[in-house]
Amino acid sequence: MARPRNPPANDDVLEVVEDGDGDRRFAIPGAQALSKGLSLLTLIADAPHPLPFGELGRYSGLPKSTLHRILQTLIDYRLVRLEEASQTYRLGTRLFEMAHKVWSDFDLRSAAEPELLRLRELAQETTRLGVLEDKEILIIDQRDHVQAMRLANGVGSRLPAVATAIGKAVMSHRPPEELQRYLTTTSLKRLTPHSILDLGELQRELDLIKARGYAVSVEESAMGVSGVAAPILDHRGDAIGAVSISGPSFRLPLERLHALGRDVIEAARRISGNVGETFMSISSSVTPSHAADRHVRCAIPYSAFLAESPHWLGNGRSLLWVDILAPSVNLSNLVTGDTRTTPLGELVGVVVPRRAGGFIAATQSGFRALDLQSGEMSLLATPGQMSGRRFNDGKCDAAGRLWAGTLAIDASPERGSLYRLDTDGTLVEIETGFHICNGLGWSPDSRRFYLADSARRQIDTYDYDLATGTLSNKAVFARFGDSEGMPDGLAVDAEGHVWCAMWDGWALKRFSPDGQLVRTVDLPVPRPTSCAFGGPDLKTLYITTARIRLSATQLAAAPLSGSILALQVEVAGTPVGEYGG
């Protein structure tokens, strides 16, 4: 056996390693230190929030002296910075300078070429690459399919920035101040009967595109031509261009455009090397790990983008739910199977009945009184700083207060908050810093409150004071691994068990009051979004689902995506109240 060399003095950053023959040797000092430094840098970058020294030591496993020296070196090179007020560590400014250099040398056209060719063969239509230049989209590459209609506007041509899918995709992800300047200095022109002419409507359309992750255009700039596009994002999340599929409207009807949405998102992410990837999920296993539970049935066949927030109405036969990305509110009659849809003018997260009559909606702009017949809304209360955010799930407590959470429209982290709308109309911000503030509910005695933060893959529990509407003693109720999906909407039964829909998990899970998993119900769809107890005895769980950003292959494997499912259970649900104001 070979004798190891004598180590140098600074052996606290060295490791003794053993090769395949059993020989022991000291690793190269510089490589070991570099490896530990890069691992620590990755830990800081991937953490959901800035970490203090103690947590860095616990997660990295490094001795305190080694951790301190590596951190100080990273700070000296401006790769990491210490926040004095909170004594936590963040990425340093030097990394942004490096990233700028990477993107300044980035050859967009070369990077996009293989994806344009792949998309062309997939859709058998023309694919394009465009960039924003002087308030127009400049086409810098185009690949025509041999069987497709050859588009007149080829490489070097310019297209309207807000009347084409490729243009709207870019504009939806430009910096807010730039977009605002554009909207206030641009005169919208009628190019076809389908062109958007109202600035408010255009802003809502761009927000919807940001939430969906892709843009569609149906004959907005030229009759007979439609398209779908996704933005190519840089390290800041700003669009540096977009990739699109375009062709004749008779071959690209609206349903097919939406089906291709996931494919153009994937292409855009590949072009940027996923550097500008947002936190929207486009990855879901094509098939589940288990067959769907035979007791699960389809209650309402539908093709919702993102059905959410189901609420059983007291008339004994109707389920109220929203399609966030349509956007619309829907009333399904479970006896006849009919669904009445009311389109809304902005993204909507939840709609609940109002004790005084009518309904309350938590929308992109705030809490609004809603006339379900006409779709007309009037503002009741709105939080500050709602730009770039929207309301998500919500419910009323037993005292009639409406609780609802928010998230960033593009799902970027730590921008979500939890709000409470009191019965006198007072709006209170309860807690901030959530990634995706999602499903919520109360124990049967209203002494515990549950809240899912989807992207953190956990459900938290709080002590709840019904008399004052206050939370305390936050603790983790359940955590989930990557393979389980993300916790979404939830409901609580009369035994205090929590039922939770698992986004990208093909399942509904039931937890005991102490957080133990007691049942998993396998579903025929990958993206269940929420659940609510209904039926005359509250023993039917109605499960909303989504089809947004699922590929054609995934939808073929899960054709009920976007429908309302139902499951008979033995334990009735806890009644969910109305808004008392």
Number of strands: 35
Secondary-structure content class: alpha+beta
Any idea what the radius of gyration is? 26 Å
Overall form: globular
Description:
α5 runs antiparallel to α9. A hairpin with a 5-residue loop joins β1 and β2. With 581 residues, the protein is of the alpha+beta class. 21% of the residues lie in helices and 36% in strands.
In short, what is this structure?
It contains 10 helices and 35 strands. A hairpin with a 2-residue loop joins β6 (126-133) and β7. The protein starts with 15 loop residues before the first strand and ends in a 13-residue tail after the last strand.
Write the layout of secondary structure elements.
Blueprint: E1 16-18, E2 24-26, H1 29-46, E3 51-52, H2 53-60, H3 64-76, E4 80-83, E5 88-91, H4 93-104, H5 108-123, E6 126-133, E7 136-143, E8 158-160, H6 165-172, H7 176-185, H8 199-212, E9 215-218, E10 225-233, E11 239-248, H9 254-271, E12 296-300, E13 307-312, E14 318-323, E15 328-333, E16 339-343, E17 348-353, E18 359-363, E19 367-370, E20 377-381, E21 389-396, E22 402-408, E23 416-421, E24 427-434, E25 437-442, E26 448-453, E27 458-465, E28 470-479, E29 486-492, E30 498-503, E31 507-511, E32 517-522, E33 528-534, E34 540-545, H10 552-557, E35 564-568
Features:
alpha+beta, 6-stranded antiparallel sheet, 4-stranded antiparallel sheet, 10 helices, 35 strands
